[in-house]
Design a protein that fits this description.
Length: about 300
């Protein structure tokens, strides 16, 4: 199993479903509109729950992998090039845009755009140093791997581990608001990328991934909830996330539990899960989700 496949698996929404509903799944399960944990209890989320959320948001590689399988050509126009790392003066801006650029880095690496990736890495270094987490990035190694296309698997693993370590460190240091901002930035940029591609290249798998983001969005809102009254920037971001959530309100996700199947792979027997999810999302719902995601993402990257 390649490192690339392992990283892609971390974000698969089916894994997320298994983690959250292992004790309650019987036959068919329809996810409710509201998350099972109230926003008022967000501060009481366990470290295990926070780690689950982080793992399902922190890698944009799955989206980029889907795009490649769709034969969608690379477009530099999707990148958040308007972000000037040197002009981010608050920890809010630095953390949020560190997440946005992390998603762009994943997109660039999947398409092997090494020149662009070096420029993004330079901005990531400035932002991470600004919130005192730069020591989690081995920039010289990442730069070297970015220039060597044969080491993409190692690059994905190193980049993903860096963001996961930063997330854990910030929470342990009592700076959970910056961790929540970074994860939100990753999600917003990945959501923007997926919805914009769908406008031009309709695809069932990618469309389902966009619909399934309704579940992760609820968790991101819970992560942000304790900080929504911390200042004007936080209040605006929380309103933005609630705005996207409203557009997802009538999207329905049905999860069907299947029986595990034994299969032979590489001469060994492995257990294959046959669970399936079904997304019911109309074209109008997708249009509203796409427009709202674009508006919010562009506002965030233009506020330098």
């Amino acid at each position: 199993m390649t490192v690339r496949f392992i990283i892609i698996q971390l974000i698969l929404i089916l894994v997320f479903f298994n983690c959250r509903n292992s004790s309650t799944k019987q036959g068919e399960f329809v996810f409710p509109d509201e998350d099972s944990i109230s926003v008022a209890d967000a501060e009481l989320l366990s470290d295990e729950a926070l780690d689950d959320i982080s793992r399902n948001v922190s890698s944009p590689v799955e989206i980029a992998d889907i795009l490649q399988k769709m034969s969608v050509p690379f477009s530099a126009g999707y990148l958040a090039t308007s972000i000037d790392a040197g002009r981010q003066n608050t920890s809010f801006d630095m953390a949020l845009k560190l997440g946005i650029l992390g998603a762009d880095l994943g997109y660039l690496n999947m398409y092997e755009k090494t020149g662009n990736a070096i420029d993004v890495l330079s901005s990531i270094k400035k932002l991470s140093d600004g919130i005192n987490v730069g020591h989690f990035f081995d920039f010289e190694t990442i730069k070297r791997l970015s220039l060597n296309r044969s080491n993409l698997d190692s690059l994905f693993l190193l980049s993903n581990n860096s963001y996961n370590q930063i997330d854990k460190f910030l929470r342990e240091e009592g700076r959970g608001q910056l961790s929540a901002l970074m994860l939100t930035g990753v999600w917003i940029e990945g959501q923007y990328l997926a919805t914009q591609v769908l406008k031009q290249y309709p695809d069932t798998i990618l469309r389902n991934r966009v619909g399934e983001q309704k579940i992760i969005l609820n968790d991101l809102i819970m992560l942000l909830a304790p900080y929504c009254n911390s200042g004007q920037e936080y209040r605006e971001l929380c309103r933005d996330m609630q705005d996207i959530k409203e557009k997802y309100r009538d999207v329905r996700i049905t999860y069907t539990v299947g029986e595990p199947v034994m299969m032979e792979k590489d001469g060994a027997l492995v257990v294959v899960q046959t669970d399936q999810s079904k997304v019911n999302m109309s074209d109008e719902q997708l249009r509203m989700i796409t427009e709202t995601s674009l508006k919010i993402r562009n506002r965030l990257i233009s506020s330098n």
